[in-house]
Amino acid sequence: MDKTEDMQRGKSQYVGSSVGGIATRLSVRMRHKMFLKLMALAAPTAETMVLDVGVTCDRREDSNFFEKLYPYPHKLVATGVENASFLEKEIPGVKFVLADGLHLPFEDGYFDLVVSFAVIEHVGDRTAQRDFVQELCRVGKYVCITTPNRWYPIEFHTVLPLVHWLPPQWFRQILRWLKKDFWAKEANLNLLTHRECLRFFSEDFTVENHHFRLFGLTSNLFYFLSRRDRK
Prior knowledge:
The structure is a single chain. By secondary structure, this protein is an alpha/beta fold. Helices cover 31% and strands 23% of the residues. It has one domain (3-226): 3-Layer(aba) Sandwich (Rossmann fold), CATH 3.40.50.150. It contains seven helices and ten strands. Strands 1, 2, 3, 4, 5, 8, 9 and 10 form an eight-stranded mixed sheet that branches.
C-alpha cells in the first residue's frame, strides 16, 4: 500500500468529525476560537506574508479553516503533502505549494507568520516532530502551532476514551485490535503533552502558551512563538 492509499484509508477511519455532527460543530467552534486568538496575537495586516503548513484535500466543514477565515488571502501560501490546489480556485489569492513540512522550499525567515494547526501529531516520531518545529521556525519570524492534548480524556481522531493515556505501544496495539491500523502507526498519530512540546522549542524564540479548554479540561495546546532577533 502506497502513502496515498494509506492516507485515504486513514481518512475512512477518522470518526472524530462524524459522530452525529456534534464533534464537527465542536471542532468548528474550537478552531474559530483559535483563529481569533491568533489574529489577536499576530495582528497581521494586508502586507503580512503568511504560510499555513499542513492543509488537506479533505472537504469537511472544519478542514482548512484558516484559509476560509483569513482576510488577506493574497498574502497566504498553503502547503501540504496532499493535493489541495482546489484552494486556489475556491479562495482567490491563496497560493498552494505541494511540500512536506519537514522540508519546506522557502528561504530562512521568508514569512512573517507561519501557522500549523493540528499537524505535528501526524509527522512521525519525536525526532521528526522536533525537526518539523525547527523547520517552521526556520522560515518564519512568528510561528503558531497547535495540537490536541494527549492528557484530554477523549482521543479526537478515534473518539476513544482514556486508552491513549496508556503507554504508546499498548495504545497502538488496542488500535490494531479495533482495526484502526492507520492510527496505530506512529508515523500517522503520535500524541503530545505540553511538557513534550516545550522540548521542541529553540531558545531563539520566546514561547507563549494559550491553551484551550473543552468541558473544563485542556483539550488543545496552542503555542505562539516570536523570534527574539526579529526586525
